[in-house]
Amino acid sequence: MLLLRRIVSGRNFCKRFSTSQSYCSDRKGLVLGVFEKDGDGHHLTEAAAGFDKGVSGKLSEVLNISGPSLKKGKSRLFFGLHKDFPCVAVVGLGKADSGVCGAENWDAGKESIRAAVSTGCRLLQDLEVKHVEVDGCGDAQSAAEGAVLGLFNYDQLKTKKKTQVTPQLHGSADSSGWAKGVVYAEGQNLARLLMEAPANHITPTAFANIIEERISSIGQRVLIHKRSKTWIEEQQMGAFLSVSRGSDEAPLFLELHYNGSPDSAEPPLLLVGKGITFDSGGISLKPSQSMDAMRADMGGAATVCASVVTAAALKLPVNIIGLAPLCENMPSGRATKPGDVVKAKNGKTIQVDNTDAEGRLVLADALCYGHTFNPRAIVNVATLTGAMDVALGSAATGVFTNSDWLWGQLQKASVVTGDRVWRMPLFQHYTRQVTDSQLADLNNVGKYSRSGGACTAAAFLREFVTLPHWAHLDIAGVMSNKDEVPYLRKGMSGRPTRTLVEFAAGLSNSG
């Protein structure tokens, strides 16, 4: 009985034996899933049942005597069940028949798998297990996403780092789904890395260099252009340049071309991301509290560029162009002053009444430039307004669009990824508030200032769009994660990279 108690009580076992960490770290760990039964009890996944058979039913035995049935999101650690896997984390997956939930606008089964697998992987990582095999749980792609996203931790600048774990699929079931999930998650982790890094490490130039390095490692058909300030001036991007004037860091316009379609003449999908690598607010200076988080104000550029990199890694049969106007927004004697008037690439003049409403200025010129490629659709992504965070919080990305078709494609993709979107209004009511300007064609803030701030920002961007299929994604609310998404640690989230990739994949499949 003493041996059985040791096996069941993982935490006590590790406390009792001083060598337990090395006992675990030198060997493999295993994450297995169990589904809830109606009433009480549990139902093993296919992989868990196979493991249980291999250990003569010991897994079922210890599960039955270790407490109540394992509910969704709960986990238990067992030790000594198998010579090859001294540490086994068993995680609760909820109901086996969970699927798309209309009320929640996501696939509840996939989300449960992501959350459960991430929990199991982290438990083993905390025990310094370096080699972890993961049960596919009936959806290997979701399991891979949960594992790779859950294990990510930005500690590059710390002396003491977490144990590096490379999760692998346990068994051979759906290895292609697992590989796809790993690529999806690594794409989001790239965006997280860029967003989390301090602004003195991720300048516009450093951002572009990191993307160039990632693209070169893929070796697929991606062209990268790092456009200098001289080129930006030649393009007459006065709105973009007005934002960059206050910083000693030179602006850079990053342009990515992924040509994945067999038909080279196929119109591309255009993705545009706001790339403010640090936003002080400029002369309209932000409060100092939490200003450090504005290192992630390039979240739009990070998710867009990471999506292009991921599409290339997946070899999606679609053409994609990614644009990222990169600069800092800083106060100085050269900085744009409230009340200044600047001219965008399309000739429209803009009265800048608030220099902290800078994201829409850099996007305006990027959108004008993007039209020259005659894209099939434009999606721009930006941490644009605090008002969006107030409206939706971290539950979903706000989407403003002039296209029902485009909205349908984005919403469909988000149900699969669990990284949700929600449609917001794009009424003329808001347009009138940005076109009523005393000195210029447009004002960069709404007539009534704080009222409907996310909506007036979207209305401003619409003034630089002529295509029938355009969407603006305001990701300010989903920029960071506290504990809302269980398979992401606290920090910058990299959302909605996987939704953008799934959206692009959907376009490639629909032709």
TrEMBL record:
The lineage's top-level taxon is Eukaryota
Reaction(s) this enzyme catalyzes, per UniProt? Release of N-terminal proline from a peptide; an S-substituted L-cysteinylglycine + H2O = an S-substituted L-cysteine + glycine; S-benzyl-L-cysteinylglycine + H2O = S-benzyl-L-cysteine + glycine; Release of an N-terminal amino acid, Xaa-|-Yaa-, in which Xaa is preferably Leu, but may be other amino acids including Pro although not Arg or Lys, and Yaa may be Pro. Amino acid amides and methyl esters are also readily hydrolyzed, but rates on arylamides are exceedingly low
One Pfam family assigned to this protein is Peptidase_M17
Domain named Cytosol aminopeptidase is located at: 354-361
Q: Can the keyword Zinc be found in this entry's annotation?
A: yes
One of the GO BP terms on file: proteolysis
Cofactors: Zn(2+); Mn(2+)
- EC numbers on record: 3.4.11.1, 3.4.11.5, 3.4.13.23
Keywords on this record?
A: Aminopeptidase, Cytoplasm, Hydrolase, Magnesium, Manganese, Metal-binding, Protease, Zinc
Q: Which InterPro entries match?
A: Leucine_aapep/pepB, Macro_dom-like, Peptidase_M17_C, Peptidase_M17_leu_NH2_pept, Peptidase_M17_N
- Family assignment? Belongs to the peptidase M17 family.
Protein role: Cytosolic metallopeptidase that catalyzes the removal of unsubstituted N-terminal hydrophobic amino acids from various peptides. The presence of Zn(2+) ions is essential for the peptidase activity, and the association with other cofactors can modulate the substrate spectificity of the enzyme. For instance, in the presence of Mn(2+), it displays a specific Cys-Gly hydrolyzing activity of Cys-Gly-S-conjugates. Involved in the metabolism of glutathione and in the degradation of glutathione S-conjugates, which may play a role in the control of the cell redox status.
Name the UniProt record assigns to this protein? Cytosol aminopeptidase
Q: Which organism is it from?
A: Knipowitschia caucasica (Caucasian dwarf goby)
Lineage of producing organism: Eukaryota, Metazoa, Chordata, Craniata, Vertebrata
